[in-house]
Design goal:
Layout lengths: L4 H7 L11 H9 L13 H5 L27 H12 L3 H10 L9 H7 L1 H63 L4 H32 L8 E4 H10 L2 H6 L3 E7 L4 E4 L1 H17 L6 E10 L5 E10 L22 H4 L7 H11 L3 E7 L3 E12 L21 E5 L3 H12 L4 E5 L2 H10 L7 E4 L8 H9 L4 H4 L3 E5 L4 H9 L4 E4 L4 H12 L8 H7 L5 H12 L4 E7 L6 E4 L1 H6 L5 H7 L13 H14 L5 E8 L5 E13 L3 E10 L1 H6 L1
Parallel strand pairs: 2-4, 8-9, 8-10, 10-11, 11-12
Antiparallel strand pairs: 1-3, 3-7, 4-5, 5-7, 6-7, 13-14, 13-17, 15-16, 16-17
Helix pairs in contact: 7-8, 8-13, 11-13, 15-16
Length: 677
């Protein structure tokens, strides 16, 4: 049909050739098996493929190609020659046009045909899309529910906290008004004062709980472990509740099963855990009930450690099974203050759980409504010895404070008035600076020694307490520069105390001011001369020709590392005469006496036993080069808790009091800095 019979016979001389009248007849003959195949010009293959009759047929390209030539008679030879040349020299464009006229472009597939031909793939694709959408919708709905629950819980918490705060505030305001009316009645006046104090403690407890949870969530909690007697420590906590339990007619018992008496622990945090739990047992146990505290020692997989399992059980009102899974969640509480008649924010249990887990411990609870509640807390502790425990602090007399002049940097008028009244009672003279800038100005104008100390608030206008301390520490008059500075601030946590010391302060007192803590701290700072008969003269002389140490300290302070001070004899037993608060803290000690006992009163014992020979050889070699030495050495120390730290040390040799040679030494703990490098 596309080629005449003669051409086909030339190509296939042995084939039987059948001619059909049209293409469809040809295709049907192939499909019905009447013929084996047919020939189609390649230029028309797309047209052929568009025929639905050929869907069952296959197409193969022949390797033999037919040349096209034009034949003519001899008389028309010139015409044939011209035609053949025209065919040979036809441009590609012309050929393309001819091909296009005899070809058929593949038809466009409709959406319906596409889905029909790829039904399985389309189904799988849309199935995956639907599943992903369903998953996203589920996650969004879950997040929305959680957000609503969190919002509801926080709203409830704020409502409860508002009520809980108002309860002690109302008591304070009410009893203050009654106190004003009954000034002449001593019994009523004292009763009102006692109730105001009690309400103050409740209010402070609520605020501390909120701040504690914030601190835990921010990850700023730090452990400060020290050795101590577990029996003494546990009894001190339990004894706090004896009178309360007795007044409420609650049977309060304790039982210890302990093989070791001494261990290391962060007493502040452990005390907070068990005061919280015992306090709750007291609150929710009705008169006539019982509260039991049991301590049991268990073995620990970690060498040198033991487990202390503490059980606190009561016969109180208990908790419902529905509430128990939510006990340790923030902002939740089964009963509000009005229902339970006790104060609280619902943060006590979350704080307890976080602290227990922070110390690698566990806490479990069982409870039943109307029967009672049992908490079991298990915490690992490192075993200690009796000699590892700190000795009793030196007892200073308040008479030592009489006549001392203190510069108070405080911007709040009420806080300043309270501090002035408290300190005036023991004969201290107070000068007030309204902000950090005024404090610096007063220090610059006053002669050296005019002020015995500075009480420095942290958050002040114009210049903060940290900034003021930095300026004072860099005064040209070093006798002024190293005046004792005590932080007196509402930043009340352990990390705040450490930050104060790192910024060049000697001690830290938290607000609201507690008279016993304030007086004890000031006594320690102002009575250093009682620690050693030579300490005062040595301390006052430490600035003489010590520019190398001052420069050494300034360099490290710029890096945020506090520099400690030490004074010890250059000969003999190398007896220590003085150590400042920063150095005492480096060794993990509470006070000078504890530090002095830890190192045996000698510089030799301050240095790691494996390093002391090398250190003394290096110092001796440097002394040969210079009488004043200004030596630089590095060595390890062993803290009270057993931790090993790396120290950078610069010493200056001087002579005071009948030519007694001493070393003034600046020391910096560089462990963390070296590890980072």
């Amino acid at each position: 049909m596309f080629f005449n019979k003669e051409i086909v016979s030339v190509l296939f001389p042995e084939a039987d050739i059948i001619v059909y009248p049209d293409s469809d007849s040809c295709y049907k003959a192939i499909i019905n098996g009447e013929v084996g195949s047919t020939l189609i010009p390649s230029a028309r293959i797309n047209i052929v493929r568009s025929n639905p009759l050929l869907e069952r047929l296959s197409v193969a390209e022949m390797s033999t190609k037919i040349s096209v030539n034009m034949l003519a008679t001899m008389e028309n030879r010139r015409v044939a020659t011209i035609a053949n040349k025209a065919i040979l020299h036809t441009s590609a464009t012309t050929g393309g046009l001819v091909l296009a006229e005899n070809s058929y472009t593949e038809k466009t597939i409709t959406i319906a045909e596409f889905f029909k031909q790829n039904a399985v793939y389309v189904f799988v694709f849309f199935g995956v899309i639907i599943l992903l959408l369903a998953f996203l919708i589920f996650k969004l709905q879950k997040a929305l529910v959680q957000a609503k629950q969190a919002s509801k819980a926080k709203t409830s918490f704020l409502s409860n906290m508002s009520h809980d705060i108002r309860t002690p505030m109302n008591a304070i305001m009410g009893f203050s008004n009654l106190l004003e009316k009954h000034q002449t009645d001593p019994e009523k006046r004292q009763a009102y004062i006692n109730k105001i104090k009690s309400s103050n403690e409740v209010l402070l407890s609520i605020i501390n709980n909120v701040l504690e949870m914030t601190r835990i969530e921010q990850g700023t909690v730090v452990l400060d472990e020290e050795a101590g007697s577990i029996r003494t420590f546990a009894n001190s906590i339990i004894d706090m509740f004896n009178d309360m339990m007795s007044q409420k007619s609650i049977c309060f018992t304790r039982h210890f099963e302990l093989s070791h008496d001494y261990l290391y622990c962060d007493q502040t945090k452990v005390r907070e855990i068990f005061i919280n739990l015992i306090s709750n047992a007291y609150k929710y146990t009705n008169p006539g009930g019982t509260v039991r505290v049991d301590l049991k020692e268990l073995p620990c997989d970690k060498d040198g450690y033991l487990l202390i399992q503490t059980t606190i059980a009561d016969t109180g009102i208990g908790m419902s099974e529905e509430y128990l899974p939510h006990l340790f969640e923030e902002f939740t509480r089964e009963n509000n203050t009005t229902d339970a008649k006790v104060e609280g924010t619902g943060l006590g249990m979350p704080i307890v759980k976080r602290l227990v887990e922070y110390m690698d411990g566990t806490i479990t609870v069982t409870s039943k409504k109307g029967v009672g509640t049992t908490f079991v807390v298990t915490i690992p502790h490192r075993i200690a010895r009796a000699e590892d425990c700190p000795s009793e602090a030196i007892d200073f007399s308040l008479e030592d404070l009489n006549g001392k002049r203190i510069l108070l940097a405080e911007d709040n008028d009420l806080n300043a008035e309270i501090a002035l009244e408290i300190l005036s009672e023991v004969g201290i003279i107070i000068d007030r600076a309204e902000d950090g800038a005024v404090c610096v100005e007063k220090m610059e104008q006053a002669p050296a020694g005019y002020y015995a100390m500075i009480l420095m608030d942290i958050q002040m206008p114009k210049m903060s307490g940290y900034e003021a301390t930095y300026v004072i520490r860099n005064l040209s008059d070093k006798a002024k520069a190293y005046i004792p500075i005590v932080a007196m601030t509402a930043n009340a946590f352990e990390e705040d105390r450490r930050k104060s010391l790192q910024n060049g302060m000697d001690a830290h007192i938290a607000k609201p001011l507690q008279m016993d803590v304030l007086k004890k701290t000031l006594s320690f700072i102002l009575s250093r001369d009682k620690l050693d008969e030579n300490a005062t003269a040595l301390w006052q002389n430490r600035f003489a020709d010590c520019s190398a140490i001052v420069s050494f300290e300034a360099t490290y302070r710029q890096k945020g590392l506090p520099c400690g001070w030490l004074i010890y004899e250059a000969n003999g037993d190398e007896k220590i005469h003085f150590a400042d608060r920063t150095l005492i803290d480096m060794y993990g000690c509470e006070d000078y006496e504890e530090f002095y006992n830890l190192v045996g009163g000698s510089f030799k014992n301050m240095v790691h036993p494996d390093d002391i020979d090398r250190v003394e050889e290096e110092i001796a070699a440097q002394i040969k080069q210079s009488d004043t030495c200004d030596d630089r050495v590095r060595y390890r120390i062993i803290r009270k808790d057993g931790a090993v730290r790396l120290i950078d040390d610069i010493g200056h040799k001087s002579f005071v009091e009948e030519a007694m040679p001493v070393f003034y030494v600046g020391l910096v703990d560089i462990t963390d800095e070296v590890e980072l490098q």
